Amino acid sequence: MTSTTTDKPAFSLNVTDQQGAKVFHLKGRLMDQQQADHLMAMLDTHLKGNEGVNVVLDMGELVYMNSTGLNIMISVFTRTRNAGGQVLLAAISHGVRQLFIVTKLDTVFPILDTVDQALAKLRA
Q: Where along the chain do its domains lie?
């Protein structure tokens, strides 16, 4: 059986404003520097002039992430924290969650089952 592009969806990203937070909806496979640069540029755009803005990373449709993706997550965390905000992860697939557990980053990032739960935690 041959591999097709549908087997390996490309990375895409959109951002919504929900309940005072920026929700980054990540889809596909997060694994290279070009994708990292795109995500960080979007983050910088949304943090600029928004001191204390909170970020939820909706990873419900993120099917794969490698060490480059983990480095991106750490950069998102650092930049958001430096701007006075919090970062929460939501709806992570089992495989991606395992990556966070093995690297012990699950002790750094709050991980919630849904975007709604993450937004509720930010309001609490």
A: 12-123
Are the C-beta atoms of 69 and 38 separated by less than 8 Å?
Answer: no
**Cα pseudo-dihedral 62, 99, 3, 8, rounded to 10:** 20
Q: Which residue has the tokens 């990373």?
A: 57
26 near 58, Cβ under 8 Å? yes
Per the CB < 8 A criterion, the answer to whether 30 and 19 are in contact is no
**What integer is the mean pLDDT of 68-76?**
92
Six-digit token pair at 105? 């980053």
CB-based contacts of 3, cutoff 8 Å, min separation 6: none
Which pair of structure tokens corresponds to residue 96?
Answer: 């991606």
Q: Are 34 and 50 in contact (CB under 8 A)?
A: no
Q: What is the CATH number of domain 12-123?
A: 3.30.750.24
> What are the pLDDT digits (tens) for 113-123?
999 999 999 99
26: its two tokens: 């990540």
Q: How confident is the model at residue 82 (pLDDT cuts 50, 70, 90)?
A: very high
